[in-house]
Amino acid sequence: xxxxxxxxxxxxxxxxxxxxxxxxxxxxxxxxxxxxxxxxxxxxxxxxxxxxxxxxxxxxxxxxxxxxxxxxxxxxxxxxxxxxxxxxxxxxxxxxxxxxxxxxxxxxxxxxxxxxxxxxxxxxxxxxxxxxxxxxxxxxxxxxxxxxxxxxxxxxxxxxxxxxxxxxxxxxxxxxxxxxxxxxxxxxxxxxxxxxxxxxxxxxxxxxxxxxxxxxxxxxxxxxxxxxxxxxxxxxxxxxxxxxxxxxxxxxxxxxxxxxxxxxxxxxxxxxxxxxxxxxxxxxxxxxxxxxxxxxxxxxxxxxxxxxxxxxxxxxxxxxxxxxxxxxxxxxxxxxxxxxxxxxxxxxxxxxxxxxxxxxxxxxxxxxxxxxxxxxxxxxxxxxxxxxxxxxxxxxxxxxxxxxxxxxxxxx
Length: 412
Known about the structure:
The chain has twelve helices and 15 strands. It has helices spanning 27-34, 61-74, 112-117, 162-166, 207-212, 219-228, 253-270, 309-316, 337-348, 354-361, 364-367, 371-378; strands at 3-6, 40-43, 53-57, 82-86, 102-104, 124-126, 137-138, 151-152, 170-171, 196-201, 238-246, 281-289, 319-322, 326-330, 400-401. The chain is α/β, with parallel strands linked by helices. The longest helix is centred in the middle third of the chain and has 18 residues, at 253-270. Helix 6 (219-228) runs parallel beside helix 7. The strands form four sheets. A six-stranded mixed sheet has the order 2-1-3-4-5-6, with no helix packed on it. A five-stranded mixed sheet has the order 10-11-12-14-13, with helices on one face. A two-stranded parallel sheet has the order 7-15. It starts with a strand and ends in an 11-residue tail after the last strand.
């Protein structure tokens, strides 16, 4: 038996020059491969026909886009090979239905050899047994942590967070340090006693927005936390990156401008102007446009694909506050409206939509357009399901069940 591990001719990559299998952090995938009873080799799309089974890790919608691009561009002959996909990004498989034969939802430890042998599991879909994708499957949870994990899931249940609602929380901490280049924690757990670089998240510029999405950080919590950093003696500055979400359905350019003015006033209150390198705090805000993720209380809500937030912040100015001890600015790396649109179309795709979405995702010409032109170009695609960018009536992934019940929230 010959087993291949598929790597893509990348259309989308993760910002690294080296996309080789050895250099990319496929921690979970490599663990599954270590359980294989048969040898495997890393292949490209043209070698699929030579294999009996090909395994493909989907860590995010980027990998789904790459898979679509590879199959639509190179049109490989699969022969009798069966393609198995799995990984954190393996949730909505409608857009890649035509290329795959088996999908593994959730954790796959101690399963891979049985899956290859044809054993059925409640978290495994097989095309030859469920052609219409009409069955019911589960997102399998871990029985235990793997050697490289300190935790899985998140102790918070933010309403926008796909990870929180598809992965049961076990272990200790809040974020998995395997993927963090430096310390990362939620605002509650953030501790900056020492100089260095830190990651955290507000996920909402206003207190009302944060509480609406169950990110219970008050303005006073922000004030108290920043002022507490003066209690520690540091030799050098602190660099803090704060992740934020922008473009919730109730937000506008005007409301965001008002929120930033309020944040500026909070930073000004917290800046005690003591001076000295050890009291300096450089705050970088990283914005991501809101995406309604499957299996979250916000999955039905409308994404805003019409505002190009990167352009908005450039026009408004990326400096939020500059004082003596505290300085804050907005990073320019903000996803475009088209990047958001691609994420939403993959997450919400139905089988009848897949050809339209495949045609968009294989088209490099639209990627090369200016941000202001991309959504307009998308509107020209005859028959494209623009309903996906509206508020929807039902969860987009009907064949899967997650580990916890949740209620949808509205945009009011």
